[in-house]
Amino acid sequence: MRTALIAGLSLALLLGGCASPGTATPGNATSGRPSPVEPSRVDGCVEPGEGVPADLRESETSTVTAVRLGSGPRGVVLTPEHGGTICQWLPFGRKLAGRGYHVLIWDPGFDPVAEIAHFAAVLREAGARRVVLVGASNGANIATFGAAWTTPPVDGLAWLSGEDMLYVAGQNGRPVRDAAARVAVPALLIAGRDDPMHCAEVAGQLAALMPSTEKRVLIVPGPEHGVRLLTGAAQPAVEQALTEFLQARTG
């Protein structure tokens, strides 16, 4: 993974799965701009010409990879699980773009909370008037912190199988409840009832902490975790809830 320094939030984050300790400190950073040259492939799964690169160049040797699909005012940022890449969200991202959404998918680096704020701004600069953050597993943790700290605020948070702790490289972790307690935007939290990481329980705990007046917890049958909620037996219910939420939050 790569290192990022971006405006307003500087957290060195080690990406993880549903549970566990500590503290991260906001700091200063600079924004990169999308690369003007489109690569032949992004993460080996985006077809040539399919999307617009939105990479964040942090230094001569460090880049956070991102791609935009579609266009228009209805923005969605998709953040993958720990160890996942753009490829993980690409099938659903393509589906959303086909429905008229302006989608950005990215590979988190070591400062993903700051990075997600940057990429929300990228979508706005490219024409999105509303932006919703969607994350799976540790990507849901990142999205929760993004929903709590991004300025100007995003328009919604969709959380799939997140966890109760965000780890920080070289430090103790930071409890996700610290971010949840600041999430005032509409939120949708989805988890499998039999998720071995106990994400259904975490969903209820985090939702109870959120000051948002518009929040919903959806617990579906089965053990599916993260993006797999959109491919397993619960897929119809999960996709319907997520689609309705995005529609309501982006107009």
From TrEMBL:
Q: Which PROSITE patterns match?
A: PROKAR_LIPOPROTEIN
Task: Give the protein name, as stated in the record.
Answer: Alpha/beta hydrolase
What keywords does the record list, in alphabetical order? Signal
Superkingdom per UniProt: Bacteria
Q: What SUPFAM superfamilies does the database record attribute to this sequence?
A: alpha/beta-Hydrolases
Q: Which Gene3D superfamilies match?
A: alpha/beta hydrolase (3.40.50.1820)
Tell me the first and last residues of the signal peptide: 1-24
